[in-house]
Fold this sequence. Notes:
Distance between the termini of chain B: 28 Å
Structural class of chain A: alpha+beta
Number of helices of chain B: 7
Order of helices and strands of chain B: EHEHHHHEHEHE
Strand content of chain A: 25-35%
Largest sheet of chain B: 5 strands, parallel
Helix content of chain B: 25-40%
Largest sheet of chain A: 4 strands, mixed
Oligomer: heterodimer
Strand order of the largest sheet of chain A: 1-2-4-3
Radius of gyration of chain B: 18 Å
Helix content of chain A: 25-40%
Number of strands of chain B: 5
Number of helices of chain A: 2
Structural class of chain B: alpha/beta
Largest interface: A-B, 16 and 13 residues
Strand content of chain B: 5-15%
Order of helices and strands of chain A: EHEHEE
Shape of chain A: globular
Shape of chain B: globular
Amino acid sequence: MAEFDQELDATGLNCPLPILRAKKTLAGMESGQVLRIVATDPGSVKDFDAFARQTGNELMESGEEEGKYTFMLRKA
Amino acid sequence: MEEKKLAIIATKGTLDWAYPPFILASTAAALGYETQVFFTFYGLQLLRKDLSGVKVSPLGNPAMPMKMPYGPKWFRDVNWNMPNALMSIVPGFESMATGMMKKTMRDKGVASVEELRDLCQEAEVKMIACQMTVDVFGFSPDDFIDGIEYGGAATFFEFAGKSDVNLFV
């Protein structure tokens, strides 16, 4: 698994909370640091893609395993 | 990149219609939009300190599914086909429907309206109460949460005219 600086547990949360929590967590991080997010909301897959494109934070990778979705975001 | 702008007019004061303006405003703020919500007519209910009066009514709401947030899965999946015009005259039915909706939202991991509103304020979404309807409905500023502004249609257009997205909810 790739390295990350912080992790956000967004399991059990539904739209728009995973995005809002991610935004808040990123605000406390430094440019270039990586945030790993774990979510269970299937809608979060498209949403983190859209979030990354609109905010300039890079979605380095995303994956799914046993109903859990993981995202690696590098802060712009 | 120049900051995008979103303007929303919130006109509904029921629980089901309380979610869209706050969900959209908080998400837009997270995406970097400068966001304003103009609350008018029944939408003013969403700015009250006490949101306990914000309810959902099955009356005249035929598309509203009636699913129990309790019991085993097969039971939860049943869509109770109750004639809503009839059920709505049963005392307490509105409170029951409101309680069921709140529980379903909570069970599905959706934030409460209060929480979404707090998140909007935290994200510096500007909330404006329509001064005219505040007067018409006899509200006092004490009824509303702190940190909001008051203005009229011209105030709304000053921002809406520069916005990339304008929504009427």
